[in-house]
Write the structure tokens for this entry.
Amino acid sequence: AAGVIQSPRHLIKEKRETATLKCYPIPRHDTVYWYQQGPGQDPQFLISFYEKMQSDKGSIPDRFSAQQFSDYHSELNMSSLELGDSALYFCASSAGQGADIQYFGAGTRLSVL
Amino acid sequence: QKEVEQNSGPLSVPEGAIASLNCTYSDRGSQSFFWYRQYSGKSPELIMFIYSNGDKEDGRFTAQLNKASQYVSLLIRDSQPSDSATYLCAVDGNNRLAFGKGNQVVVIP
């Protein structure tokens, strides 16, 4: 079965650079979530989208923005990167909001040097 | 106080034994509860979800939910070396998952 696809899998950036992470949800899933997981930490919710509209916002820095496109894929844009942004970034998708099960992509490992 | 608490340290269990993991949550209005397994450097993989009080069994896994005590647990029977991983308890709240810090399980052959 098709899963959540994230790209790139690995990304190395310098401080103050920008990065764009992409997420393609499971077909027919209309809700996308972004999580950040630092080393040894649990995943922290960043932001979510339902039907191309932002549905919830968590601990996402102002330097980050995200959107969901007409084909339901989502992009997380990160600017003025800091060393502390180095983390695993996971995208998850679900078939609807609320209590629906979230399925996670393989993640993007971002390293900021 | 963190929304979801998993306070136990690393758990070492012999192969074939039962691993027991516990989780408490703070939001009484929470309706959906999940256990994810995460191997180092990999993404969380859903292994169990439970919505109603009581037990839910799926293969070697049993989830238990007690909403009155705000408590969720996971039992892994006949533990295998491949079960060695971090187990994350997650609670759904307002369209986002709140995770506990996870419990590392090591199954010793």
Observations:
- Chain A touches chain B through 27 residues (CB under 8 Å).
- The two ends of chain A are 36 Å apart (CA to CA).
- The CA atoms of residues 6 and 106 of chain A lie 7 Å apart.
